[in-house]
Write a structure and sequence with these properties.
The chain folds into two domains: 110 residues, Tetrapyrrole methylase, N-terminal domain (Cobalt-precorrin-4 Transmethylase, domain 1); 133 residues, 2-Layer Sandwich (Methyltransferase, Cobalt-precorrin-4 Transmethylase, Domain 2). The protein contains eleven helices and ten strands. The strands form two sheets. A five-stranded parallel sheet has the order 3-2-4-1-5, sandwiched between helices. α2 links the parallel β2 and β3. α3 crosses α4 and α7 crosses α8. The longest helix has 13 residues. The protein is elongated, with a radius of gyration of 19 Å. The termini are far apart. About 2% of the residues have low confidence. The chain binds S-adenosylmethionine (SAM). The site of S-adenosylmethionine (SAM) has 25 residues, from α5, β8 and β10.
Length: 257
């Protein structure tokens, strides 16, 4: 039987217009689409004849365990199908795309990676926050704030990060925000550093909550903020006052009551 193939495709951060041309072409040709929770349903309509498989993943709620997803991709490809594994943002930025690629390589299944626009850069951009800015920030780091993940936690050295880069972008950090803010301040980051919490960035539901490192956790708690949120920490956040350009319709309607 003819061997199929798998494309690990970044769906972008939410706004379906941010999907790449290459990703869209593969999606339209796909026979099987395995997709994640954060993928906009409008993208799935681009593959009306394909079999759609929901692979899950809200925080703490895995619709399909990672090993099952890997096995599913291998199984469909071995049955000769063109598979698109559609993942939120970029597949290789906290997307476990590396693990899926490893499983495909081990099984001898041909695969390609189509990068996507990561929420790490897109959510700040839609909030009017440049991650670098001449005279303000010349470096940024993207890290996970997920506490439940042992390896990831060990991998984020908050003490060193506190002053090592100008702008910090934290994904999956809402639950750990009080600890993150405390650690950064304890290790030398100014308590008055501006912080933005961009929720559902690039979508019609985008909201932006701002504060300072020493009060943003309390603000987030008061607002009962829930994921998905990109946290941006650094002086560049102040630029949003002049550069915020995106006016999501539904958030506006909501604000207007
Ligand atoms: C498992 S990670 C996947 C990241 C993804 N691969 C990427 O490149 O954007 C999920 C986290 O990404 C962030 N995220 C993804 N989409 C988002 C969006 N539209 N708005 C805000 N945060 C988002 C949140 O921090 C969320 O908890």
């Amino acid at each position: 039987m003819r061997l199929g193939s798998v494309a690990l495709v970044g769906a972008g951060p939410g706004d379906p217009g941010l999907m790449t041309v290459r990703g869209l072409a593969l999606l339209r040709d796909a026979e099987v689409v395995v997709y994640d929770r954060l993928v906009d349903p409008r993208l799935l309509r681009e593959a009306p004849r394909a079999r759609h498989v929901f692979a899950g993943k809200a925080s703490g709620d895995h619709a399909l365990p990672q090993e099952r997803i890997n096995a599913l991709l291998v199984m469909h490809a071995k049955r000769g199908r063109s598979v698109v594994r559609l993942k939120g943002g970029d597949p290789f930025v906290f997307g476990r795309g590396g693990e899926e690629a490893e499983a495909l390589a081990a099984a001898g299944v041909p695969f390609e990676i189509v990068p996507g626009v990561s929420s790490a850069v897109a959510a700040p951009a839609y909030a009017g926050i440049p991650l670098t800015h001449r005279g303000v920030a010349s470096s940024f780091a993207v890290v996970t704030g997920h506490e439940g993940c042992g390896k990831a936690r060990a991998g984020v050295d908050w003490a060193r990060l506190a002053t090592a880069v100008d702008t910090l972008v934290v994904l999956m950090g809402v639950a750990a925000l009080p600890r993150i803010a405390r650690e950064l301040i304890a290790h030398g980051r100014a308590p008055h550093t501006p912080v933005a919490l961009v929720r559902w960035g690039t979508t019609d539901w985008q909201t932006v909550l701002t504060g300072r490192l020493d009060d943003v956790a309390a603000r987030a708690r008061a607002a009962r903020l829930e994921p998905p949120v990109v946290i941006v920490i650094g002086e560049v956040v102040a630029l949003a006052e002049r550069l915020a350009w995106f006016r999501p319709e539904r958030a506006m309607e909501h604000a207007l009551g």
